[in-house]
């Protein structure tokens, strides 16, 4: 394009020059023509220079176009990079927003934790102060109590000594009777307590004995496992030929072997397990071969699957090729049983709190071992389908564990009963202690009543004993005599009250009481 424009400019300049020459020729002005020619020469030189520049620029056009392509590629790359950068910035912004939200939540949690810590610290300080106050109060009350106890002990010792010295003869018979009655009452209260303690000790010993016997029995049952396994294997071999032709017979035989394993583990039909029990599901009615009951109202479903025909062909194969084909059919049969059992979804049956998996029982131990040894992924594939393959030996361990769980459940119930009876025993003991405290209170009340009666009898002014002794001094002749200690005590108590007073004096030979008002005594 620049070269074409230059050529056009040159042609246009030549045209102008021709026109000017023609005009000058018509006008006849030679000098003007020369001047025009000079001008045209100048313009021609300028046009040549411009053409040279344009040619140089035209030579640089491919280079510029190449650079332009590179710049456009760089621009596209920058556009793509800017898009990626924009997406990265967006992701980083989103993550930053999440981090900011998490930081705000963490800051809020930290503030809440600090507030809770401050509250707890304040509460701890308050409790510390309260504890110190209570400790001080407790020390004061303890000191007061100790002082009161010491005082009461002194009073008790004094009263006890006085009681023993003054009332031994009077209360001897009553004390014996009271002791006998208390012994009888305490026997009535303590005998049931002793019986309960003996019963509690017996039950605890029974629990430990049962635990020891269970462990011994478990070891014996484990030792019997190999014999049972060999017996089951022999039974399987003997029945192989009879069961090859009937799938129904194979299923019945597998269920029979399954029940024998359950019974050998100590489980009872109708108690710890049920056979062919009907249950409903979303797809209709289902009848699992065996439903094992577990503690806490849980269940374990076991379904027997017999793969006998292909295994018998494998066992009786004459060459490796024949055994390989039979082995493939056997593995296909086992996997088909596994898929079918998984599709039944026994763990989703209504009315069952089943475990998340179902046990697939293979009654022929060698067939089971052949399958698991030739396909190492068989167990994992079954587990992913919620199906666990077991043989008679492995199932026996499982059901023995279930039986042990039931025994543990029974022992736990016994322990709960023991704890319940222990609580009742403790309550009875508390009641007995309360009654014994009441007996002590009654004894204290009886002692207070005795002290009051004793004061009226011998200590107070004008006591009964003193009046009786005065009557005796005045001439009353009783057949019996009061205890000397009581008489002396009554006389000592009455000495102070009689000092300086006129009393009643005995008159020899008189039968009555006459007051002495002066120095002269009345005469008979």
TrEMBL record:
<feature type="compositionally biased region" description="Acidic residues">
    <location>
        <begin position="492"/>
        <end position="501"/>
    </location>
</feature>
<keyword id="KW-0175">Coiled coil</keyword>
<protein>
    <submittedName>
        <fullName>RmuC family protein</fullName>
    </submittedName>
</protein>
<dbReference type="Pfam" id="PF02646">
    <property type="entry name" value="RmuC"/>
</dbReference>
<dbReference type="InterPro" id="IPR003798">
    <property type="entry name" value="DNA_recombination_RmuC"/>
</dbReference>
<feature type="coiled-coil region">
    <location>
        <begin position="30"/>
        <end position="176"/>
    </location>
</feature>
<dbReference type="GO" id="GO:0006310">
    <property type="term" value="P:DNA recombination"/>
</dbReference>
<feature type="region of interest" description="Disordered">
    <location>
        <begin position="492"/>
        <end position="524"/>
    </location>
</feature>
<comment type="function">
    <text>Involved in DNA recombination.</text>
</comment>
<feature type="region of interest" description="Disordered">
    <location>
        <begin position="269"/>
        <end position="291"/>
    </location>
</feature>
<keyword id="KW-0233">DNA recombination</keyword>
<comment type="similarity">
    <text>Belongs to the RmuC family.</text>
</comment>
């Amino acid at each position: 394009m620049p070269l074409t424009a230059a050529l056009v400019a040159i042609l246009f300049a030549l045209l102008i020059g021709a026109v000017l020459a023609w005009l000058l020729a018509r006008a006849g002005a030679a000098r003007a023509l020369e001047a025009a020619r000079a001008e045209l020469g100048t313009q021609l030189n300028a046009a040549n220079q411009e053409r040279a520049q344009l040619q140089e620029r035209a030579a640089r056009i491919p280079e510029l176009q190449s650079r332009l392509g590179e710049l456009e590629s760089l621009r596209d790359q920058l556009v793509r990079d800017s898009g990626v950068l924009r997406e990265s910035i967006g992701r980083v912004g989103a993550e930053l927003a999440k981090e900011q939200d998490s930081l705000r939540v963490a800051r809020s949690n930290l503030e809440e934790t600090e507030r809770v810590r401050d509250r707890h610290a304040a509460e701890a300080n308050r409790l510390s102060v309260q504890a110190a106050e209570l400790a001080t109060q407790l020390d004061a009350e303890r000191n007061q109590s100790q002082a009161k106890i010491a005082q009461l002990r002194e009073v008790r010792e004094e009263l006890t000594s006085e009681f023993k010295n003054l009332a031994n003869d009077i209360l001897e018979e009553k004390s014996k009777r009271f002791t006998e009655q208390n012994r009888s009452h305490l026997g009535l209260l303590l005998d049931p307590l002793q019986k309960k303690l003996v019963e509690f000790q017996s039950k605890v010993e029974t629990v430990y004995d049962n635990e020891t016997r269970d462990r011994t029995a478990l070891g014996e049952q484990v030792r019997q496992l190999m014999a049972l396994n060999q017996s089951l294997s022999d039974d399987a071999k003997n029945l192989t030929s009879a069961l090859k032709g009937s799938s129904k017979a194979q299923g019945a035989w597998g269920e029979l072997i399954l029940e024998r394993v359950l019974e050998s583990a100590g489980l009872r039909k109708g108690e710890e397990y049920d056979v062919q029990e009907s249950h409903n599901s979303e797809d209709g009615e289902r009848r699992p071969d065996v439903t094992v009951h577990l503690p806490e109202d849980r269940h374990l479903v076991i379904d027997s699957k017999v793969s006998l025909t292909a295994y018998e062909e494998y066992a009786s194969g004459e060459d490796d090729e024949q055994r390989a084909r039979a082995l493939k059919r056997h593995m296909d049969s086992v996997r088909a049983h596994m898929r079918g059992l998984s599709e039944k979804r026994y763990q989703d049956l209504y009315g069952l709190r089943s475990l998340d998996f179902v046990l697939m029982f293979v009654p022929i131990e060698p067939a089971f071992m052949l399958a698991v040894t030739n396909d190492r992924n068989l167990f994992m594939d079954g587990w992913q389908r919620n199906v666990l393959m077991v043989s008679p030996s492995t199932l026996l361990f499982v059901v023995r564990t279930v039986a042990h769980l039931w025994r543990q459940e029974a022992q736990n119930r016994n322990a709960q009963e023991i704890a319940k009876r222990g609580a009742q025993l403790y309550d009875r003991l508390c009641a007995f202690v309360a009654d014994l405290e009441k007996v002590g209170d009654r004894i204290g009340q009886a002692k207070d009543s005795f002290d009051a009666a004793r004061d009226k009898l011998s200590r107070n002014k004008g006591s009964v004993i003193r009046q009786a002794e005065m009557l005796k001094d005045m001439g009353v002749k009783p057949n019996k005599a009061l205890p000397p200690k009581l008489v002396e005590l009554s006389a000592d108590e009455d000495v102070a009250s009689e000092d300086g007073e006129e009393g009643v004096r005995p008159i020899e030979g008189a039968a009555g009481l006459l007051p002495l008002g002066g120095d002269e005594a009345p005469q008979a």
